[in-house]
Each structure stands twice: as C-alpha cells, then as structure tokens.
Amino acid sequence: MTLPRFSPDSDPGPDFLGLLQRLDRSPSWNGVQVDANQITHGTTVVAIQTLDGVVMSGDRRATSGHLISHRTIEKVFPADQHSGVAIAGAAGPAMEMVRLFQLQIEHYEKVEGRPLSLDGKANQLSQMLRSNLPAALQGLGVVPIFAGFDEKLQKGRLFEFDITGGRYEEKDFATSGSGSLHASTVLKLRHNGKLSTDEAIDLSIEALFHAADEDSATGGPDPIRGIYPVVAVINSSGFTRIEDSELATRTNRLVEKVTGERS
C-alpha cells in the first residue's frame, strides 16, 4: 500500500479525522433512513469525580424499541491510558465513534510526539459529535461522557456533551442515557464532594441499581447470569476495570442494605 502524500496547505497533520476526509474514507450515516424501533440503544452511564481520579460505570442492557436486544453490551471504554469514554445512544455509531476517537488520540501522539491534553481530547470528541448531527436528527444520536486524570492538574475531570457537539465540564458527577435522571438524583443526594475511590464505586453501583428500578431500558445486576455493571477507575496509575467478582460482592452488600436481608 502506498502512503498518501499531501501538499503543505492540505496536510491534515495530527488530525486523524482530517486524514480520513482527505482520503474520502470518513464514516457517514447521512441520508440513511432508519426505523427507530430497529436501532440498538445503550443506556445508562455515569462518571464520578473522586479525591484521586474518576470512576466511570455503565449498565449492560441494550434495547431495540421495547425489546431487550443485548444483556451484556460494553458501554465504558478506555480512550487512552489516562482517560475513558462511556457511551449512551445509538450503539452502532457510538462504538464506531469510540474506535475513531481512540485512533485519533493515538495518531496525534505519534505525529506530535506528545500526548494530547485532556481538554484537547474532549474537543476532538466534541467535533465528532458535531459531525454526527445529521445522523442524530434521524434517530442515530450519540451522547457520551468523557473523563480522565489530568496529569498536569493532578486531578480527575469530567465532560458531558449534547448531540450538537456542545461540551460541558462537570465538577462532581456526570450522567447520560434514559436512566440518567434517576441516576443523577442518587448521585446528587449521596455525593459530598470528597469521595474516595471505594466510596465512588459503591455509589455508582447504587445509582445504576436505582436507575434500573425506574427505567426499563436500564439493566440491573443479574446474579443468575453473572451480569454486573462495567465499572472502571481512572487515576494516576491509568485506566483499570473492576473485576466482576468484586462487583458481585459490592452489589450483594447493596442488596442487603436496601432489603435489610442477606442475599
């Protein structure tokens, strides 16, 4: 395969999406007519700021209309070593966007020889959402959460978005998806601004548990099938996903707390 060559005025540089556009290979959902009941949607996701970083989590259910299409979908992904993205909305475009986002960050670092700043990563994701707006207006909307550990500021940071590409930094927590209202209510009542990582993990499980109790599109823990939320910790050590065995133990403690009985 021959590497593409560009003139100085058309060289996309570290912009991976710009490179795809120059090669006429950028993904596009424009003009696609879709049936809303056939689109696979994923919800609900949350991110919580802690004293030493961020905790991100998401339930495992995906729906198509009123049907459960998947019970074990992944909604929380590493963007790079010190950041992650959680998806809500149309699952197909969301997963493609995550893959392109990961490539964009890697491409920038290889071309520039240094990592993209956390603000720069959030801006790149914002541009991808803006490019997806025509598809979002046809029912293929994606509304992610981006979070990471800012090595310069030595703290965790959270970013929410809307389908137009609007980017909003949040202080304590962020939520997205159909169960976000119920999850954010739990977080608002429980978050005290100074949570440890352990406390934030338990709080994220509780928020998703109550969201699933009120929202049919959000999946609750399923001990029979061994299905628990995806929970990841992002701090100075990097992106770490919590094992299902630990989540099972924490979920059982929550059930005991809610019911007053041992599970």
How many whole angstroms does the radius of gyration measure? 19 Å
* Unreliable spans: none
Task: Name the CATH homologous superfamily.
Answer: Aminohydrolase, N-terminal nucleophile (Ntn) domain
- What is the rounded distance between the termini? 59 Å
Summarize the structure in words:
This protein is α+β, with helices and mostly antiparallel strands and 263 residues long. It has a single domain, classed as Aminohydrolase, N-terminal nucleophile (Ntn) domain (Glutamine Phosphoribosylpyrophosphate, subunit 1, domain 1). It contains 7 helices and 14 strands. The strands form 3 sheets. A 5-stranded antiparallel β-sheet has the order 12-2-3-13-14, covered by helices on one side. Strands 6-7-9-10-11 form a 5-stranded antiparallel β-sheet. The protein has a 4-stranded antiparallel β-sheet with strand order 5-4-1-8. Helix 2 packs across helix 3 and helix 5 runs antiparallel to helix 6. The longest helix has 22 residues. It is globular. It starts with 15 loop residues before the first helix and ends with a helix. The model has no long low-confidence stretch (mean pLDDT 89).
